[in-house]
Structure formats: C-alpha cells, structure tokens
C-alpha cells in the first residue's frame, strides 16, 4: 500500500479550506468583529496586547478545531490511518493549523494596528504575534481530538484548553506590549517557542491515543 507523508495531508487540508472557505470566513469574521467591538468599548491602545491575544485565541479555536473534528465527523480518519501513521496525521494537522493561524495574523495585524491607532513598530508587533500564535495553534490541535465526539464540544473545548493555554497568556501579553515600545522581549519569546515545542512533542507522543 502506498504511504503518504504528512505534507500530503497539509495540502489536502488547505485545498478543503480554500474550496469551502467556511472555517476561514468564520475565523476572520469573528476576529474582525471582536477587534472592532473592543476598539469601541475600551481603551484599545492601552489594552491592545490583551485584545490581540483574545482575538487570536478565540479565532484559532474555531479554525484549528474544525480541521481535526472534520476528519471524525466525515469518517475519513480511518482512511487516513490506512495511508499514514498517527504521528504523521498529527504532524499534518499541526502544520495545517499553523498556516491557517498565520494567515489570520497576516490579515488581522494591519487592521488592528490601524483600528487601535497604534504607533509602535509594526514589523515587531507582527513578528511577536506570530510567535505568540505558535503555542496557541499547536495546543488547540492537541486538544481537539479529545472533544471530537463530545456533546457541546464548542463549550467543552475552551474549558479543556484554558488550563493548558493559561501559562502562555502572560508571556504573550508581555511580548506584544514590549513590541509596542520597540523592544523584543526575548525571554518571553523563548518561553513561547519552548512551550510550542513541548506541545508539539506531546502531540506526537500521544497521537496514537488521539487518532
């Protein structure tokens, strides 16, 4: 039987997203609506870091969980397991979700930069948000299979995710806040990258039990 590598799964997921556009449209609509409402209700220039993390986190839950849950809902997961092992499936889902979240960051960052009337270094802010999105997307990919068959998984997934994602909230906010001042918080960036690596390693180790 011909074996497929995880890049084939990445291509498949991106083609599905490009064709349906449902998850991406929901993600972008939610992100932009949330950012706009926050900009009207609070001092967005002062709390922009917290707002950006909330926008990326909640939007990523919509998109990253969908790419995983779809395989179970459409009963295609068994077909994938015939052509690749569970670790390759997990690696493919991680890369797919990273690319989708990076697309979100690329679109949302300049809009929020203008919407919140920020005056800091745009490139540094963009880079910091990319770093912060790494552990977010990987952790959501790890947790999503656990809620695939649960009732009310839209509520269950955030509840399961919060204790695991909580350690990166403060470093992410510090990283984004310092970028506004033109400083790259290296310690926070290293912590976020290390946390992303830890979650990716756990995902691969536990993949046999998740798929």
> How large a portion of the residues is in β-strands, by DSSP E?
under 5%
Reported for the largest beta sheet, the result is: none
Low-confidence runs (pLDDT<50, min 5 residues)? none
- Gap between N and C termini, in Å? 20 Å
Number of distinct helices: 9
Shape: globular
Overall SS class: mainly alpha
Query: What percentage of residues falls in helices of 4 or more residues?
Result: over 70%
How big is the Rg? 17 Å
What is the H/E string?
HHHHHHHHH
Mean pLDDT: 83
Count up the domains: 1
Structure description:
By secondary structure, the protein is mostly helical. The protein has one domain (6-210). Helices cover 81% and strands 0% of the residues. The protein is built from 9 helices and no strands. The chain has helices at residues 6-20, 22-41, 48-73, 77-83, 86-115, 122-143, 153-165, 169-180, 186-210. It is globular.
